[in-house]
Amino acid sequence: MARILIVDDDPALLRLLSLRLREEGHEPIEAPSGEAALARLDQALPQLVITDLRMGGMDGLQLFDAVHRRHPLLPVLILTAHGTIPDAVRALRQGVFGYLPKPFEAHELMQEVGRALAASQALGADIPGDEPGDSWREAILTRSPRMEQVLAEARLVAGSEASVVIQGPSGSGKELLARALHAASPRSRHPLVAVNCGAIPENLVESELFGHVKGAFTGAVRDRPGLFVEARGGTLFLDEVAELPLPAQVKLLRVLQEREVRAVGAERPVRVDVRVVSASHRRLQDEVAAGRFREDLFYRLHVVGLELPALSQRREDIPLLAQHFLASLAQRYAKRTTGFAPGALELLVSAAWPGNVRQLQNVVEKCVVLGTTPLVPAPLVQRALANEATDMQPLDNARRQFERDYLVQLLKMTSGNVSQAARLARRNRTDFYALLGRHQLEPGAFKPGS
């Protein structure tokens, strides 16, 4: 069954199309005008749009242009009278999937619908659910057209070998999307290895990514293959890739160019077949402009970019996600919580959610743990949201904040003298300057009289 948006200002033809599609097991969504069709698209993303060419107000070609700008992978079929076939042919050149001259036979309509739906499925524009081939994205719950478009693009790029950068705010689900992309790819039988680049100590980045041999440095008591080798044949997910120090960026670029890694202390490099998917909550383009991320590495990683929306931009997903989290957490904590009382969901939907999906899960968990009734009451949700602001910050954020405070203290103690500060930190000047650059600290600002 497919969801199909049909658009026509003739009520009789609209009703006929709707009946025909329903008889074939599809779910038709009716729109009496182009303007109404765009409103329907904001509510639910279909797998196909069928529109009349000549309509009052927005015509079929104008509707196609608007749909194509917002959902470039969504196929559009145009119905046209014989006199306007030249217009339909021109539309094909602009990207319309196909046209059907009126009057048409039912089998002709269904033949074109079948052809368009096959293309829609191949491009990843299928609806969420339990249909075969949908398991690659089963961990991502959404009814948001904007999120569906991101998933359609991920499905399309999954079959290629292109490097992908996923960008979006913290807690928006970048690793979930990376895992879905891997699951939809030909590499799915091989491992996906994930690493948070911001959580690796700077002096261990090279060893962690590329491996080391026994005795290569103090503490190297055995050979370690490194994450590139562990991910051989599969996908390496570099989360928070913008946190990599510049020296490590140079070595990563070389690996991506030569497709081989040399472990620390090893005599020979090893060939690796790995697809790299990266993610960052900071825009890499801005990091390149600020000199904190190498431009050549950016272009090597950013062959395709996917942008995840914040939870506040997909509020229609909040009830769906909240109920899902509630069900799984109630099972984990052996609670008899079954749903949300009147007003509770409204509070969740209207909240700001700076921490995105991760924060929503945290709030629902508090409600389940503290709840004493089958339905979570609105005051408990309000209390959980109010307490959220005083929660502990994530370890990675705390580590970065500590590092910045430590550097500021060193620069204050040495009045901005980088050589002295580097000696106190037991780092060479190059590494110390890289640390300062990462936190955008200017030594001159700490000199007397500044």
TrEMBL record:
<dbReference type="Pfam" id="PF00072">
    <property type="entry name" value="Response_reg"/>
</dbReference>
<keyword id="KW-0547">Nucleotide-binding</keyword>
<dbReference type="InterPro" id="IPR009057">
    <property type="entry name" value="Homeodomain-like_sf"/>
</dbReference>
<dbReference type="InterPro" id="IPR027417">
    <property type="entry name" value="P-loop_NTPase"/>
</dbReference>
<feature type="modified residue" description="4-aspartylphosphate">
    <location>
        <position position="52"/>
    </location>
</feature>
<feature type="domain" description="Response regulatory">
    <location>
        <begin position="3"/>
        <end position="117"/>
    </location>
</feature>
<dbReference type="InterPro" id="IPR025944">
    <property type="entry name" value="Sigma_54_int_dom_CS"/>
</dbReference>
<dbReference type="InterPro" id="IPR011006">
    <property type="entry name" value="CheY-like_superfamily"/>
</dbReference>
<dbReference type="InterPro" id="IPR003593">
    <property type="entry name" value="AAA+_ATPase"/>
</dbReference>
<dbReference type="InterPro" id="IPR058031">
    <property type="entry name" value="AAA_lid_NorR"/>
</dbReference>
<dbReference type="Pfam" id="PF25601">
    <property type="entry name" value="AAA_lid_14"/>
</dbReference>
<keyword id="KW-0805">Transcription regulation</keyword>
<dbReference type="Pfam" id="PF00158">
    <property type="entry name" value="Sigma54_activat"/>
</dbReference>
<feature type="domain" description="Sigma-54 factor interaction">
    <location>
        <begin position="140"/>
        <end position="369"/>
    </location>
</feature>
<protein>
    <submittedName>
        <fullName>Sigma 54-interacting transcriptional regulator</fullName>
    </submittedName>
</protein>
<dbReference type="InterPro" id="IPR002078">
    <property type="entry name" value="Sigma_54_int"/>
</dbReference>
<keyword id="KW-0804">Transcription</keyword>
<keyword id="KW-0597">Phosphoprotein</keyword>
<keyword id="KW-0067">ATP-binding</keyword>
<dbReference type="InterPro" id="IPR001789">
    <property type="entry name" value="Sig_transdc_resp-reg_receiver"/>
</dbReference>
